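Slack export, channel: ligand-projects

TW: morning all. Re-posting the request from yesterday since it got buried. We need the structure predicted with the small molecule present, not the apo form. The ligand is 2-acetamido-2-deoxy-beta-D-glucopyranose; the SMILES is in the block with the sequence. No rush, but it would help planning for next week.
GE: picking it up
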Amino acid sequence: MKVSAVFVCLAAILSTGVADAAPLRQRSLVYARNNKVKMMNGQKANSSSSSSAKGAVYFMTNDPKENFIIAADIGSDGKLTLNRAVSSRGRGSHGQTSPNGPDALFSQGSVKASANGKILATVNPGSNTVSVYSINENNPSEISLIGDPVSSEGEFPMSLAINSNGTQVCVLNGGTVNGVNCYKVDKDVGLTAVPNTLRSLGINQTTPATGPAGTASHVIFSEDGKSLIASIKGTPPTPGFLAVWDVNSDGSLSQDFKKVAPASGGLLPFSMTVIPGKNAILATDAGLGFDVFDFSSGNKSSAVPIQGQSATCWSSFSKKTGNFYLTDIGTATVTEVNVDDNLKGSIVKQYPQKAGSATIDNDIASIGNNDFLYVLAPNATQIDVLSLDGAGQAKSIQTLDIAGPAKAAGLSIDPFNLQGMTSFVKSG
Ligand SMILES: *[C@@H]1O[C@H](CO)[C@@H](O)[C@H](O)[C@H]1NC(C)=O
Ligand SMILES: *[C@@H]1O[C@H](CO)[C@@H](O)[C@H](O)[C@H]1NC(C)=O
Ligand SMILES: *[C@@H]1O[C@H](CO)[C@@H](O)[C@H](O)[C@H]1NC(C)=O
Ligand SMILES: *[C@@H]1O[C@H](CO)[C@@H](O)[C@H](O)[C@H]1NC(C)=O
Ligand SMILES: *[C@@H]1O[C@H](CO)[C@@H](O)[C@H](O)[C@H]1NC(C)=O
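GE: finished. pasting the full token output, ligand included:
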């Protein structure tokens, strides 16, 4: 019996051709891994589906065994429904902190969607890779990996920038081997390295990074797409800085970066949000509140304290209200900030969230004529949803539990590892 089974097997291999047998098996394995999806809340997987959702938000489990992206539908009222978790085929990691807690990567932008590119990218900090997915425009929670995860060419990748047309992705590595590296997005094979974009930061770090002080924070493109900017926190009393590379027309980067210091008082530049039309950036500053970096000849940079803050680290901008929304992990508070025409920053209003929930990554989606703020609160394993009805008029409309639906779907969640928040909205 045994012998004939071997013969049958051999015959099968010979009939398909010995050379083809292994690749066939590999292809089917890749296919199976590519489709590792855990549906949530009774949703059904359907590769040709459309949904009534207006968009989706995405964040990561950042699990050291296997990183999953969790996608939640955005309804017409701005409220969320968890839809699915999709493997990135990479691993998560947690920075070295004392005590251990949420904010595993000390970063903003670990997961990033592009409306123009219809793609979603994620870092895999524990396997030093980057994964890219296509987003189904008709059902934005439905994301499918394109190609294999690619090397970040450094250690502890923790933030991503995507250019405005969604054709180039750059990663910020924050470990012992740190710096940036960029890829073109190929809709068939995924990410392909762009020559002359692997650039070192030269910060003295470990893998995983030790922080939050002295760690890399965030990478973004400038509004005109001509600069790639990384933020680095200081190690008190030494202030941090922004590293600015020129982006050439072929996507390559200048050999060296320009080092830009915050205005006096600035210490720990964290997230960066473009101030529209100003050639300037608002950077949260965990040591103070926020910094305004003015890149125009006006030189109106400033460092603005937020009284009673603990660690203001994440930010986003609302087109509807014209204001910025900053989150503080320690006080679990959303602070609404206005930056006027002369780049003078001021605090509009504060919105306390659940004490101890550790509000971290946030993003804003415009649905119809309304803007909604989505805040990851990992210590409570929840997302806070606020409706931004006007300047100074943010209103809590939902607290979305992640833990219950994840457990029901067999998805393992460590609240201290949860990270990232990015949104995609259907066009039209
Ligand atoms: C998948 O979605 C399409 C379009 O919405 C629908 O016609 C089809 O019945 C769905 N299939 C399953 C198995 O749900
Ligand atoms: C996308 O933008 C880059 C520069 O940022 C440009 O080189 C490229 O041609 C653009 N691609 C498309 C399809 O518009
Ligand atoms: C790097 O940091 C470590 C730990 O703080 C320190 O011991 C070492 O001297 C630093 N190295 C350099 C070159 O600054
Ligand atoms: C900007 O202002 C600071 C003082 O606020 C000054 O030290 C610096 O030289 C100025 N830079 C330029 C380019 O004018
Ligand atoms: C997270 O929750 C733990 C346990 O309740 C608490 O000790 C810790 O202070 C919280 N961390 C933050 C940043 O809120």
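GE: first-pass observations. The domain at 3-425 is CATH 2.130.10.10 (Methylamine Dehydrogenase; Chain H). Residues 1-33 have pLDDT under 50 and may be disordered.
TW: perfect, thank you
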